[in-house]
Write a structure and sequence with these properties.
By secondary structure, the chain is of the alpha/beta class. Helix content is 38%, strand content 16%. The protein has one domain: Zn-dependent exopeptidases (Aminopeptidase).
Length: 252
């Protein structure tokens, strides 16, 4: 019987008969964020402070109100834990959570290394524009006085010819992030009124043509928040809080 089946199969190949293939469409993404494309921007990069990248870091551009530089080194805890490392680890955890919720996710940088620089903040925004992101979330941490704590959002001011096409949706995104993060348990800022800061010279926000917001997750100079920021459990918590804000935006 086996020999007969082998002969029949061989004859089919000789005659050019294709073996039956089950036509199955790829599974549609599922979850509350299915079909959404989100760009995560983990602030800074470890190599931004590396002298061998001084030329790259010296690049400047007009951002609609002023001339500013490519990028910065970011802040750090009092013990020296860098903002770049914190934002990178939170972004990777958030990426996994967003993907489980059905979203497609890209990052503005692919490493956290002293041997890498940038990209420049305007190039990060241009990536969001190029891929047509449904939202761009810029992840940062503050370096304020030690008594300051909690998260807040930064959105662009209205700048004619720059942000006037997105300022309303940016404000809606920021308000959803604030409400969603609070509901998820994130401690709100005690030094930024209403947890909302309007900026006219944040280059990345000014260059973005898609819904964008910068979230300062907390203050790295506050001892309590620094302990949370430097722990794996704390970084997962920050990612969950951000997820709560993003989901709130897409439900609104």
């Amino acid at each position: 019987m086996k020999r007969l089946l082998t002969i029949v199969a061989t004859a089919g190949l000789v005659l050019g008969l294709a073996a039956p293939v089950s036509a199955q469409a790829p599974a549609e993404p599922k979850g509350p964020l299915a079909g959404k494309l989100i760009l995560l921007d983990p602030g800074h990069q470890l190599g931004n402070s590396n002298p061998k990248f001084a030329k790259q870091m010296s690049q400047k551009i007009f951002n609609g109100t002023t001339v500013k530089g490519c990028n910065t080194t970011g802040t750090a805890t009092n013990s020296g834990y860098p903002e770049a490392t914190f934002t990178w680890r939170v972004a990777k955890r958030l990426k996994r959570q967003l993907e489980r919720a059905g979203a497609r996710v890209e990052l503005t940088r692919t490493s956290n290394s002293r041997d890498a620089w940038g990209p420049c903040v305007w190039d990060r925004a241009k990536q969001a524009n190029r891929i047509g992101a449904d939202a761009m979330i810029n992840i940062h941490a503050d370096g304020a006085s030690s008594q300051s704590k909690g998260f807040f959002a930064i959105v662009p001011a209205r700048i004619k010819g720059w942000t006037d096409d997105v300022v309303k949706v940016d404000r809606r995104l920021a308000k959803a992030m604030i409400a969603g993060m609070k509901a998820a348990g994130a401690p709100p800022s005690n030094y930024i009124s209403g947890q909302l800061l309007i900026s006219n010279n944040t280059t990345g926000l000014n260059f973005s043509n898609v819904p964008s917001v910068t979230i300062e997750l907390g203050n790295m100079r506050n001892a309590q928040e620094a302990r949370r920021m430097t722990s794996s459990a704390g970084q997962r918590q920050y990612a969950r809080w951000l997820l709560g804000g993003i989901e709130r935006f897409f439900r609104s």
